[in-house]
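Hi all, long-time lurker, first post. I run a small reading group and we've been trying to get comfortable going from sequence to structure in the token notation. Rather than ask abstract questions, I figured I'd post a concrete chain and ask someone more experienced to write out its structure so we can walk through it together at our next meeting. Sequence below, copied exactly:
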Amino acid sequence: MTFPLWYILVPYAAILLFGLLFLFFNLFHLLRYGIESGKTLALMGVYVVSFLLVAGASLFFLSSFNWRQEVDPLQLLPFNPENTKTFGV
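-- Answer (accepted) --
Happy to help. Here is the structure in token form:
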């Protein structure tokens, strides 16, 4: 029972998409209802830049992995066939 490692990227993409949706939601409301002060604009700029930095850094670090590699989850669990109290299948 193996699966490709890239299946782990599906929840990552969902979280990244949710963050991007939240970013555009905030930008829309800021532009729609106006900027009250320069502090609001600066805070939104910090938010956008920090989101882009975190997303870019995570994509940079994730690009170094071989995502086509097959993984067997049973190899990750401790297994002792003599002891039935472990995770033996």
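A couple of things your group might point at:
The first helix runs from residue 9 to 33.
The two ends are 12 Å apart (CA to CA).
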